[in-house]
Amino acid sequence: MAAKTQIRVSRRPQGRQIGYARVSTDEQATAAQEMELRAAGCEMIVEEHGSGASRARPALARLLREIGADDTLVVVRLDRLARSVSHLLEVMEDLTTKGAHFRSLRDPIDTTTPQGMFSLQVLGAVAQLERALISERTKAGIKAAKSKGKLPGNPGLRERRSDALAKVTAAQKAAFGVRVQATLNQWLPTVRRMRPDHTWDDIARVLKQRGLDWTPERLRRAVKWLVAEHLADPGLLKKSPPRLPEDRLMTLVAGIHASNPDLTLREIAAQLERLHERTPRGGSKWSPSSVKNLIDRARRSGLIADASPG
């Protein structure tokens, strides 16, 4: 009896192949990486300029937010993507949550294949072992220090010395500034359009509808930092004037429309319902005509200058 030969064909996901190319400085070019990524079938390539050790990766963060199910994130080498094994695994977790895949052209990692998934699991095991060894060495060091009468930690902080506390405060402020500037272009234009006519709560809710997770307190703090660094107009921090409920709805709808002029009246109505905003008459269901009335009022008030959404 003739043996049957079974041929297994590896099927690639039907989504997009999205390349990610990173270089450390503005003087370097991503051209060589782009050529390899194009040759591998990437239709879209996201470029990033930034140190491999830096946590500020705005282009990568935006890519991870927007990548879709069955899309594949492709890099030339792993070091172009992640700062460390733990960072790589965080990125993998984000992709898995989205139903997306990952592939490194020069490394044996391709999560669309069993072999690639195995390599990724090995990396995860190595990272877990590394964390355990670090923890064990740290505990042993603390125990040895205590046996010699030494206390762990920074002596300056333990003694609440002003110079040590000032250094920690300065480092925290610098780190906060890096995080604020990394996402600046995603939320500051909306803040500029809506402040001070809108409350911070209204602006945070509009940003949340766009997938940006801001609380009013964090948003106000970020703008205060920008103003202190002379990167934003102090007028953004002015107190919002008291408004009648319908006036607040008018400016809220104007803000949603300004953030995304392509939204239809029905889509704006759906956003208002998700925000649990009541209609001018107190109802919970918004109609396109109610939205249009508020947009027309906003246009007459000068809040909107372009054509109304369809």
TrEMBL record:
One protein family per Pfam: Resolvase
Keyword presence, Transferase: no
Residue numbers annotated as active site: 24
Domain Resolvase/invertase-type recombinase catalytic: 16-149
Keywords linked to the UniProt accession: DNA integration, DNA recombination, DNA-binding
InterPro entries: Recombinase_CS, Resolv_N, Resolvase-like_N_sf, SSR_resolvase
CDD domains registered for this protein in UniProt: SR_ResInv (cd03768)
Superkingdom as given in the UniProt entry: Bacteria
PANTHER family (alphabetical): DNA-INVERTASE FROM LAMBDOID PROPHAGE, SERINE RECOMBINASE PINE-RELATED
Name this protein carries in UniProt: DNA invertase Pin-like site-specific DNA recombinase
